[in-house]
Amino acid sequence: MSAKNGERICIAYGGGYVIVNGATSSVCELLASELGGFFTIGAELPHEGNLVGEVTFHHDPAARDDIEKTFRRSKGVPLVMHAPSDPKHRRYGIKIEAPSSTYVIRTTKAGTFKYDRETAKIAVYHADEIDGGKELRRVIRDQLFVPWLEQQGYFAIHSAAFANTLGDGTLVVGQGGSGKTTFFVSALAQRSYRMLSTDRTLVKLTDEGILALGVPEAVNFLPGTLAQFPELRDLSESSPAERFWARNSKFHVPWRLLYGRFAAQPSHSKVLLKRIVFPEYGAQWECRTLSPAETREKLEEELLTADRDLPVPNWMEIYKQRDTSAETLLESMSHVHAEAVRWNGVSEISRYLAHATRPERESVMPLGPR
């Protein structure tokens, strides 16, 4: 997507849209690269949909200095803006409440945000154009679209997801180290699936069934996982073999780079959830169908609701979930066909995917390893 400096653009996703003002051509390219495969980006407003928010980008250092001067003597409260498992990557800020429902966030990385909860208008001030563009992307995705969709009835689940050619979705749910990423990349490698999400999936109960939406995010890979796939092996070459499975040696791989290695694209069609997989790495292959009670218990552990400590907090709180219990959704999801899969190698996962999620079969127990 091309754009002139300062030109207004519109970003649409999930039935809503966000207006972005002041984005430079470099920032527009960044947004197109990191959001564009999932979100629709263009200069024209959509003919239908809901206005989710309006964001104005300022990368002039003087503009940021003016904001800082205005609130320099104001006291604020500490704020966690991003809380991944690795503490060294956490981001913090100071939240200052001002008149007219306006809030200012000073970050530890030279960025400042000013926003109004009533109008959902946000100003992003950053001295660096590209770093500021990344902050803009986080605001659009994590502070506007995802919370707005949650207010519309969606819930985020810590999971990967993909769909077969008929739009039947598979949700892969589990904690770090269980094999979510390995399952997802194995599906990519088969080149017969449409990819939805790598780490966070939005799900909603509808009259048609359980609808799933993907969220564009980079993927954290252990070097040992990268080395198992010929298409990704070169990305792990800088890591010594003895560090392949060390939790603190992960590589941050952009989703577009990952998809490009397999000539894959994000799914733009409607995806309805038909299968849930709970992987677990173990010594011996096992695939077991779960009861509704077991499925529900496992899902509850990975449901990312507002009443829990989240890796990506909704710190602006412009939109809030109306119901954090998700009882009806969990009850419905507990009756989706679900399996606990213990695996020990990529070849086992590949055989499972080849048999278990074919379009012409709704529920086929996979063969064990040969």
Strand content: 25-35%
CATH class of the largest domain: Alpha Beta
Low-confidence stretches: 361-370
> Could you tell me the radius of gyration in angstroms?
21 Å
Average of per-residue pLDDT values: 87
**Overall structural domain count:** 2
Walk across the major sheet and give the strand order: 3-1-2-4-9-8-7-6-5
How would you summarize what this structure contains?
This protein has 370 residues and is of the alpha+beta class. It has helices spanning 25-35, 61-70, 129-151, 180-190, 223-227, 255-261, 292-302, 327-333, 346-356, and strands at residues 7-13, 16-23, 40-42, 50-58, 77-82, 91-98, 102-107, 111-116, 121-126, 155-163, 168-173, 194-197, 200-205, 210-214, 219-221, 251-253, 271-281, 286-289, 303-304, 337-343.
Description:
The structure is a single chain. This protein is α+β, with helices and mostly antiparallel strands. It folds into two domains: 7-151, no CATH class; 155-218 and 254-356, Phosphoenolpyruvate Carboxykinase, domain 3 (Alpha-Beta Complex). The chain is built from nine helices and 20 strands. It has helices at 25-35, 61-70, 129-151, 180-190, 223-227, 255-261, 292-302, 327-333, 346-356, and strands spanning 7-13, 16-23, 40-42, 50-58, 77-82, 91-98, 102-107, 111-116, 121-126, 155-163, 168-173, 194-197, 200-205, 210-214, 219-221, 251-253, 271-281, 286-289, 303-304, 337-343. The strands form three sheets. Strands 3-1-2-4-9-8-7-6-5 form a nine-stranded mixed sheet. Strand 1 (7-13) and strand 2 (16-23) form a beta hairpin. Helix 1 crosses helix 3 and helix 4 (180-190) crosses helix 9. The longest helix has 23 residues, at 129-151.
